Amino acid sequence: MSPQKKAEQLGITFEKQVPGYLNKCVRSGHQLITSGHTSKIKGKLGADLTTEQGYAAARECAIEILRSVWNAHGTLDGLKVLKVLGCVNCTPDFVNQPAVVNGCSDLLHEIFGKETDGWHARSALGFASLPNGVAVEAEAIFEVKS
Length: 146
Fold this sequence. Notes:
By secondary structure, this protein is an alpha+beta fold. The protein has a single domain, classed as CATH 3.30.1330.40.
């Protein structure tokens, strides 16, 4: 099954986005580079949110990234995930940032293939604060394969 069909089967919907202040996804050569996409879930990991809630927040970020990539490319087909950066709003003693950002990576693996086009480099970092108090912000780089 193609990545586009897998995403739709998972209930992810796609519709044209209204351009905003910044470009959510820019194409440069054979790459699609996204801006940071934030979760709807707000809070701080290690204080008022669990790792599982952070995982759900990172998954929300991945869905928004996919929507922006779809808007720039017209489909999720023909893409390879190269890099993900996950930023986690957390307390100084919280150390499970990788488990949180897995929420983003796991969805990309499910859609693009864990050992094929979804296999990506990744960073998972902790931050003292993120915009508007969101739990997670993530960005990604995709290769246009054709």
